[in-house]
Design a protein that fits this description.
Length: 291
């Protein structure tokens, strides 16, 4: 191998000397032809499916399905059944579809969350208490109790508990991360979305602060929702009005929280993007100075 390498080097040097001596003759050294691998359209990677858009569509469909199963369908069932049977039985039967949804979710997807367990527990407890006492309003109390419990859980997750590798994080952050929402910039196009969330959480204080604020707002709002619903339940004259006013109040209250979340996130997103650009510009400037 050394023989061939040395002979090739000598021939190339002689050729260069001869070519440089004759200005009229063109240099016959040939540059290697550029590789056509990247230029060939057949070898390019197919366009990647936009995971962010898919997650947004998935979240929208999931929200609409939850709205129908948890609110619209029970309301329709109660309106129809209350004409033929007692209010207690109508409330219990109309509360079955959300419970079936939780059970099916566990059977087919092998997933059950804390909210699902709380809904199932409150349904059983509310049913037993209302049947024993013969008071339909006791069944309606399951909603404010659930709301207050979820609010307390949200506030508890704000406590920076760390045990071994486990570290408590705001519940809204975990919820958003599991859904994969948010157009977070990746180090590469193929960086998984969960890894992007973890990297942003560890790197940017503005990102962490956003989820602390959202979790705190939702926690306090859901706790305040409980006494408001209790007042509606016991101040209305009939069960029908208590059901409809309770649903209307809860729907308006939650949508106000959603509206606040959208506005707040958009504002923080703009500040967050500006911060990233400043940090990138500072990093480039530092690199240029070192060079």
């Amino acid at each position: 191998m050394s023989h061939f390498k040395g002979s090739n080097q000598t021939d190339n040097e002689n050729h260069v000397i001869q070519s440089s001596g004759d200005l009229a003759s063109p240099v016959t050294l040939e540059t290697p032809a550029p590789s056509t691998t990247l230029e060939s359209p057949t070898t390019l990677k197919p366009p990647k499916i936009n995971q962010i858009q898919e997650s947004k569509k998935k979240m929208l469909l999931l929200s609409l399905l939850m709205l129908f199963v948890d609110i619209i369908l029970p309301l329709i069932l109660f309106t129809i059944l209350s004409r033929f049977i007692s209010d207690i039985l109508a409330l219990i039967i109309s509360g079955i579809p959300p419970i079936i949804s939780i059970i099916l979710n566990f059977i087919f997807r092998r997933k059950v969350n804390a909210t699902g367990i709380l809904s199932l527990t409150s349904f059983i407890a509310g049913t037993i208490m209302s049947l024993i006492q013969g008071d339909a309003r006791l069944y309606l109390l399951r909603e404010p109790i659930m709301s207050c419990t979820v609010g307390l859980v949200l506030l508890i997750t704000l406590i920076p508990i760390k045990v071994g590798s486990f570290q408590m994080r705001p519940l809204v952050f975990n919820y958003a991360k599991n859904l994969g929402i948010g157009d977070l910039k990746g180090l590469t196009e193929d960086e998984p979305i969960p890894e992007r969330w973890e990297r942003h959480w560890k790197t940017y204080a503005v990102f962490r602060r956003t989820f602390f604020v959202l979790t705190a707002v939702w926690g306090f709002a859901l706790i305040l929702d409980a006494p408001a619903r209790i007042i509606v339940i016991y101040k209305t004259k009939t069960i029908d009005r208590a059901v409809f006013f309770g649903v209307a109040f809860g729907f308006i209250w939650v949508n106000c929280l959603i509206l606040f979340t959208v506005i707040y996130v958009r504002r923080k997103k703009n500040l967050f993007e500006k911060q990233i650009k400043k940090e990138e510009a500072a990093a480039v400037a530092t690199a240029n100075k070192e060079v």
